[in-house]
Amino acid sequence: MITQEHVTKHKPDPEAFHLALSKLGVTPEQALIFEDSNAGVLAGQASGCDVVAVRHAFNGKNDLSGALACIDSFEEMLAA
């Protein structure tokens, strides 16, 4: 788990995602990020990863259009 205490720059900066990729030993091409905010989508994209946006009742005004896809439930990923 990466929290704000682990980084000096916060979303939309990709520092947290770069740290997570490093700790996991994976490349951006091997990762898929799920985010629920515009800043998170931007950070995920800046890290070089594909990003799937998760819509919910509290983020209706966030611009999630930059994501590869938008889902309302993780169950949608199982159907695909």
Enumerate the strands of the largest sheet in spatial order, edge to edge or round the barrel.
1-2-3
Whole-number total of structural domains: 1
CATH architecture: 3-Layer(aba) Sandwich
Name of the CATH homologous superfamily: HAD superfamily/HAD-like
How many distinct beta strands? 3
Distance between the termini: 27 Å
Which class best fits the helix and strand makeup? Answer: alpha/beta
- The tally of helices reads 3
Shape: globular
Mean pLDDT, rounded to whole units? 94
Reported for the largest beta sheet, the result is:
3 strands, parallel
Helix coverage percent of residues?
Answer: 25-40%
Set out the fold topology.
Blueprint: H1 15-24, E1 32-35, H2 38-46, E2 50-54, E3 69-71, H3 75-79
Parallel strand pairs: 1-2, 2-3
